[in-house]
């Protein structure tokens, strides 16, 4: 199993993602965590602020969108669509909405199989990293579990993908709008005795087989030589 889980965008360890890909250069970008935002607003944001495909392209990774809504109830078709990709990259937004998209499309079962076969890398930031956990408990402080979008089931899913055995709290003590909510989520999980890892923006968790590594934010000079 190969995972690259970031607090914010690619974080400060993109060279490690390149190594994790073992020469792979094709990425499927999943943006369903943003499906509650009108399409026009999303296009404007991509054009003027941030486009995950451009960020991946800067690292030599050719990325294209893969909309899980196109595969609701069509898990076999989704499995075929993912064939040939080296990386699945799930962006931030609402973790509960993303999790429902993964359930309705069968992505949760498909990605488990592909990771077991070591066919690709699963990566993501913020919501895309959060859903890798066994549970989304505590994340309701940061994301609205009832967030709606057309075509989605209304049932709230509290289970994550179970790719790791601890929860992730992104944007912890970072210059981010959700930093205060992240602080409260950490307090809740700590009081509950649940295993978790807070991530500051820039930090990344790498999983290779049974090895789990937290990559801190390195000084600029060290990042350039990495």
Structure commentary:
By secondary structure, the protein is an alpha/beta fold. The chain has one domain (2-225): Class I glutamine amidotransferase (GATase) domain (Rossmann fold). Helices cover 34% and strands 17% of the residues. The strands form two sheets. It has a seven-stranded mixed β-sheet with strand order 3-2-4-5-1-8-9. The radius of gyration is 16 Å and the shape is globular. Residues 221-226 have low confidence and may be disordered.
Number of helices: 9
- Average pLDDT: 95
- State the total count of DSSP E strands: 9
Helix content: 25-40%
Rg (C-alpha, Å): 16 Å
Order of helical and strand elements: EHEHHEHEHHEHEHEEEH
Please identify which CATH superfamily we are dealing with. Class I glutamine amidotransferase (GATase) domain
Largest sheet: 7 strands, mixed
Adjacency order of strands in the biggest sheet: 3-2-4-5-1-8-9
CATH level-two architecture:
3-Layer(aba) Sandwich
Structural class: alpha/beta
Low-confidence stretches: 221-226
User: Which topology does CATH recognise?
Assistant: Rossmann fold
- Could you tell me the strand content as a percent range? 15-25%
Describe the global form: globular
CATH class annotation? Alpha Beta
Distance between the first and last residues' Cα: 23 Å
Number of domains: 1
Key descriptive features of the protein:
seven-stranded mixed β-sheet, 9 strands, alpha/beta, 226 residues, 17% strand
In short:
The chain is α/β, with parallel strands linked by helices. Helices cover 34% and strands 17% of the residues. A 7-stranded mixed sheet has the order 3-2-4-5-1-8-9. It has a two-stranded parallel sheet with strand order 6-7.
């Amino acid at each position: 199993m190969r995972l690259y889980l970031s607090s914010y965008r690619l974080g400060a360890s993109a060279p490690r993602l390149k190594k994790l890909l073992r020469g792979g250069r094709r990425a499927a970008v999943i943006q369903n965590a943003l499906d509650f935002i009108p399409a026009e607003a999303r296009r404007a944001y991509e054009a003027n602020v941030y486009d995950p495909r451009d960020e991946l392209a800067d690292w030599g990774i050719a990325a294209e969108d893969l909309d899980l809504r196109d595969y609701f109830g069509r898990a076999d078709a989704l499995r075929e669509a993912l064939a040939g990709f080296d990386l699945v990259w799930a962006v931030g937004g609402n973790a509960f909405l993303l999790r429902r998209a993964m359930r309705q499309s069968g992505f949760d079962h498909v990605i488990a199989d592909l990771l077991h076969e070591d066919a690709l890398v699963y990566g993501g930031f913020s919501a895309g990293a959060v859903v890798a956990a066994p549970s989304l408990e505590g994340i309701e402080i940061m994301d609205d579990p009832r967030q709606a979008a057309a075509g989605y089931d209304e049932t709230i899913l509290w289970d994550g993908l179970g790719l790791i055995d601890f929860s992730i709290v992104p944007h912890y003590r970072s210059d981010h709008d959700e930093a205060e909510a992240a602080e409260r989520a950490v307090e809740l999980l700590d009081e509950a005795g649940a295993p978790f890892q807070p991530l500051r923006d820039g930090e990344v968790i790498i999983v290779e087989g049974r090895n789990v590594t937290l990559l801190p934010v390195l000084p600029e000079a060290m990042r350039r030589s990495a």
